[in-house]
Design brief:
By secondary structure, this protein is mainly beta. The protein has one helix and ten strands. Helices cover about 10% and strands about 30% of the residues. It is elongated, with a radius of gyration of 31 Å. The model has no long low-confidence stretch (mean pLDDT about 90).
Length: about 190
């Protein structure tokens, strides 16, 4: 019995010795490069009726971010030359683009976004469009939650785009300028 235990212990020691001398380690380097969204649009200002007009707006009038004329709508298929703005996708991923615009406040041309594309007594209507798009397919610009304007902007892609605002129907009470913020949002497609 002592011999069997001694042999078993000896074999166990040899086995542990073999396992410890046979084992080795290898490191694996794991690289994780993030895909990211980086987006811009320029220019960053738009004065209604200032491109070819006088900077003063009228009630119940549509103004276009069209370098060919503030009151000139784009062609049936929108051209680059009819777009005031350019967005740039500096991301490493495809993105979707959305355009929202809040209320005009701080002056006498105060108006809220009606969210339907049409104006009303104290609301304005707004749309956005891009070069190459069928103008009739323009997208309603809401205060928030607008539908997607462009679904797949590839990394490094620049795109010309524009917007339009139809001013409220009721007359102004004074001449102080109001401002609104148009927000262009890019998310990973």
């Amino acid at each position: 019995m002592k011999k069997v235990i001694l042999i078993s212990v000896t074999l166990a020691i040899l086995l542990v010795g073999l396992l410890t001398t046979v084992a080795s380690a290898t490191d694996i380097t794991i690289t994780a490069t993030p895909g990211y969204v980086s987006f811009s649009s320029a220019p960053t200002t738009w004065t209604l009726n200032d491109i070819t007009g006088d900077g003063f707006i009228n009630v119940d009038t549509v103004y276009y971010a069209n370098p060919l004329g503030d009151t000139t709508p784009p062609s049936a298929t929108v051209l680059d030359a009819e777009c005031q703005f350019t967005w740039t996708n500096d991301s490493t991923v495809d993105i979707e683009v959305y355009v929202d615009c809040g209320s005009f406040t701080g002056g006498d041309a105060d108006m809220t976004n009606g969210g339907t594309g049409s104006n009303g007594a104290t609301t304005y209507g707004a749309y956005s469009w891009y070069s190459g798009m069928t103008y009739a397919s323009k997208v309603i610009v809401k205060s928030s939650g607008s539908n997607v304007l462009y679904t797949t902007v590839t990394p490094g892609e620049d795109k010309k785009w524009g917007a339009e605002i139809e001013t409220r129907e009721d007359a102004w009470t004074g001449g102080d300028a109001s401002t609104a913020t148009m927000t262009i949002t890019a998310i990973e497609a």
